[in-house]
Design a protein that fits this description.
Length: about 160
């Protein structure tokens, strides 16, 4: 059954990603996409895998393919904004994507962190601190959010 195969491969890719076995994750997602199954979820997972593998340009292309399928998907908006911020690219555009994601899911820690991270990259440390602090308070000690908070605090505290 194609749907079951899709679900199994997608789940395997997520499990492999969560255990940092990105080559195996990539294999599973590529099998889906090459088999003709294109979905926002598959493209989003693949974009994350590519980002973790350091293939940022491919990651951006892949998340943009997801955006073509669902331009209002909060996860896609957040992912695109975060990746662009990480690369220091199109920061004004990244800010808008992250704001839209937060409007759709205002208590999602990852989205709050991404919005704060774009503000950080823009040099707007007080705004960054506001969002990343809130993200950290609901993130259950997530290591990336914790690192972002530490970096923002280093910039905010000297300002007073």
């Amino acid at each position: 059954d194609f749907i079951q195969l899709y679900q199994c491969r997608l789940l395997l890719a997520v499990i492999y990603s969560n255990t940092e076995r990105y080559s195996l994750a990539e294999y599973e997602i590529k099998q889906l996409l090459e088999g003709g199954y294109e979905s926002v979820q598959a493209y989003s997972v693949y974009s994350y895998i590519l980002f973790q593998l350091g293939r940022t340009d491919q990651s951006l292309d892949t998340i943009r393919a997801a955006m073509e399928l669902d331009p209002e998907n909060a996860n896609v908006l957040n992912s695109l904004g975060y990746i662009e911020a990480e690369q220091g690219q199109r920061l004004d555009e990244a800010l808008e994507y992250c704001k839209r994601a937060v409007r759709k899911a205002p208590e999602q820690a990852a989205y709050l962190d991404s919005l704060g991270w774009v503000y950080y990259k823009l040099g707007k440390y007080r705004e960054a601190h506001q969002y990343i602090k809130r993200a950290y308070s609901i993130s259950d000690d997530h290591p990336i959010i914790k690192d972002h908070l530490r970096r923002v605090v280093e910039q905010v505290e000297p300002e007073g």
